[in-house]
């Protein structure tokens, strides 16, 4: 089924590819589970990285995913989830049926997806504004790049 507008058809196709890749990372065939996970982690990340970084991150997302990313966001709000436990709790609130270990696996899956979909520099920038404990949920490639960048800046 097509919408008749190329821009909408393209974003639906891109979103389906993102969800398919996330389902593979999560080891599931459940598209709703992948969608819920992506939404929960993106919301927690958006609320953690500050307005300027959140807008920049949003610009990297396909149009349809960008809509769910901005859903319910108040740009003037304060940055939240300064620690790993608070970030995980934020994700848990949006995924009430998942246990603690599963939440971390889901966060890692989304961070891995973002690493594959974004320019590496963008992934490094986003991970770089997070506390070390949260950066450890990103792929090792990103963790090492952030540490190298921060060591060079010091």
Taking the alpha carbons of the first and last residues, their distance comes to: 53 Å
3D shape: globular
Which value, in Å, is the CA radius of gyration? Answer: 15 Å
Mean pLDDT figure: 90
Which percent range describes the beta-strand content? Answer: under 5%
Would you tell me the structural class of the helices and strands?
A: mainly alpha
How many strands in all? 0
Q: What oligomeric state best describes the polypeptide chains here?
A: single chain
Helix content: over 70%
Helix/strand order, N-terminal first? HHHHHHHHH
Number of helices: 9
Poorly predicted ranges: none
Question: What tags apply to this protein structure?
Answer:
mainly alpha, 73% helix, 9 helices, 154 residues, globular, single chain
Structure description:
By secondary structure, the protein is an all-alpha fold. It is built from nine helices and no strands. The longest helix has 21 residues, at 6-26. It is globular. The mean pLDDT is 90.
Summarize the structure.
With 154 residues, this protein is mainly alpha-helical. It has nine helices and no strands.
Question: Topology, pairings included?
Answer:
Elements: H1 6-26, H2 31-48, H3 51-59, H4 63-70, H5 84-94, H6 100-117, H7 120-128, H8 132-135, H9 140-153
């Amino acid at each position: 089924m097509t919408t008749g507008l190329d821009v909408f058809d393209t974003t639906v196709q891109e979103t389906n590819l993102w969800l398919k890749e996330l389902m593979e990372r999560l080891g599931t065939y459940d598209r709703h589970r992948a969608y819920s996970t992506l939404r929960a982690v993106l919301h927690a990340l958006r609320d953690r990285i500050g307005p300027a970084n959140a807008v920049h991150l949003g610009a990297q997302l396909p149009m349809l995913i960008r809509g769910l990313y901005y859903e319910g966001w108040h740009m003037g709000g304060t940055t939240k989830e300064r620690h790993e436990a608070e970030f995980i709790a934020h994700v848990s609130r949006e995924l009430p049926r998942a246990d603690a270990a599963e939440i971390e696996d889901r966060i890692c899956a989304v961070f891995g997806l973002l690493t594959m979909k974004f320019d590496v520099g963008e992934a490094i920038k986003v991970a770089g504004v997070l506390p070390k404990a949260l950066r450890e949920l990103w792929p090792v490639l990103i963790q090492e790049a952030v540490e190298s960048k921060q060591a060079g800046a010091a």
